Amino acid sequence: MSLQERIAVESRKENWVRVAKEVIQNNELDNLMELFLGDNKRITQQASAIIMTIADLDIQLFQPKVDVLIHKLDDNPNPTQKRNIFRILQFIKIPKELDGKVINHCAEILSNVTEPIAVRAFVMQVFYNQTQKYPELKEELLLLIQENINRNPSAGIKSRGNKIINKLRR
Predict the structure, then answer these.
(1) What is the span of the domain harbouring residue 170?
(2) Do 94 and 18 belong together in one domain?
(3) Domain count, the chain
């Protein structure tokens, strides 16, 4: 059975964990990444569940893939891809040469209130991580978070935003 067939079998956590372990064991992460970063939204969503399960098992497996993930952001990824790319990026080291690209994407997304809440919440953390390398960005991030809280006071935005605001003010 192909990887695509295995990820499509059923949408249950037990299946995701089983397939994630198989992907790791069989060195199929590159193949899974192709499915996740592809253009077929249904396949992307199916692959996404496995990608996130692998990230929960061993986030460092994505370190060698960081450039591919970041460059995908230039291709206007679908919300599932964008959410999970930023979910991964919040936990792995971003190479210095890609910092500017990441910061620009973060600022763009936080400036756009039509972006899904989960995407913006993960982006806040990624942007915060960048302020640890570039402290001069702290004020910009503070303003963007406050604007998000004021314009869309959802529980997710308020919770993540306030946590990061507290960190920035320390």
Answers:
(1) 69-77+90-170
(2) no
(3) 2
The verdict on residue 85 lying in a domain is no
CB 127 within 8 A of CB 107: yes
Where helices occur in the chain by DSSP H, the ranges are 3-8, 13-25, 29-36, 41-57, 66-72, 79-89, 96-111, 117-133, 138-151, 155-168
Please answer whether residues 142 and 165 qualify as being in contact, where contact means their C-beta atoms are separated by less than 8 angstroms: yes
Q: Could you tell me if 18 and 73 lie in one domain?
A: no
* First and final C-alpha spacing in the chain: 53
Q: What is the pLDDT along the chain (170 residues), one digit of tens a residue?
A: 788 888 877 667 778 899 999 999 999 999 999 999 999 998 999 999 999 999 999 999 999 999 999 999 999 999 999 999 999 999 999 999 999 999 999 999 999 988 999 999 999 999 999 999 999 999 999 999 999 999 877 899 999 999 999 999 98
- Residue entry with tokens 């040469």: 97
Residue 125 counted as domain residue: yes
